[in-house]
Amino acid sequence: MNDELFNLIERLANLLRQETRLEGQSLGLQPIQQEALYYLSTCNRYSDTTLAVTEFLGLTKGTVSQSLKILESKSLIAKVKDKKDKRITHLKVTETGREFLMKTCPPQKFTDAIAGLSVDEEFETKTLLKKVLSNYQLATGRTAFGVCKHCKFNRKTSDGILCDLTKEALSSDDIMLICREYVV
How crowded is residue 89: how many other Cβ atoms within 10 Å of its Cβ? Predict the structure, then answer.
């Protein structure tokens, strides 16, 4: 059973990578560059640095730096200095980058395949995949990079939403994004 489930998930992941790779060829992007761009479109302000991209992708800093330079040269991302700490540089997806992602992520064929599921089937699939992901993260000890609103540091206060780790206020948009400081 585990082999069959692994094979199904691996096959699905491979098909998604192939489709994404084909979409990226329109801009001359390599898969690693597309992964970095997509990640940057889904992460919060604590997670949009070169180091965070490196940690998320599990690659060397040199490889990631080169990929980010290419994304910047194609005007898909822009470097922005942190307003509070000028030593920190944030990587922001540009409008051009967002337009590319809107056309390519998720790939249209994946969207078409999901459209073949009933509302209940889609909900059940999401629920089960979230459980598998959570179990796998716990088993590997790699729980970082989760959605902010599910983090143990995310706290509702009378003034709004607060990150108990950074002691900073969070917006409703912030809590929907991936954070590298995420803790189960």
Answer: 14
Spatial CA neighbour of 163 closest among 174, 150, 154 = 154
- C-alpha torsion angle, residues 43, 182, 147, 60 (rounded to 10): 40
Q: Is 41 helix (H, G, I), strand (E, B) or coil?
A: helix
Domain ranges of the chain: 2-116
**Segment 13-28, tens digit of pLDDT:** 999 989 888 888 888 8
What is the model's pTM? 0.84
Name, in order, each residue with C-beta under 8 angstroms of 26's C-beta and a sequence gap of 6 or more.
none
pLDDT in tens, 114-134: 999 999 999 999 999 988 888
Assign domain 2-116 one CATH number from 2.40.420.20, 1.10.238.10, 1.20.1050.10, 1.10.10.10.
1.10.10.10
Provide the CA 173 distance to its chain's centre, in angstroms.
14
- What distance, in Å, lies between the first and last C-alpha atoms of the chain? 27
Bridge partners, 169 (sequence order): 162
pLDDT recorded at residue 1 = 58
C-beta atoms surrounding 99 within 10 Å = 12
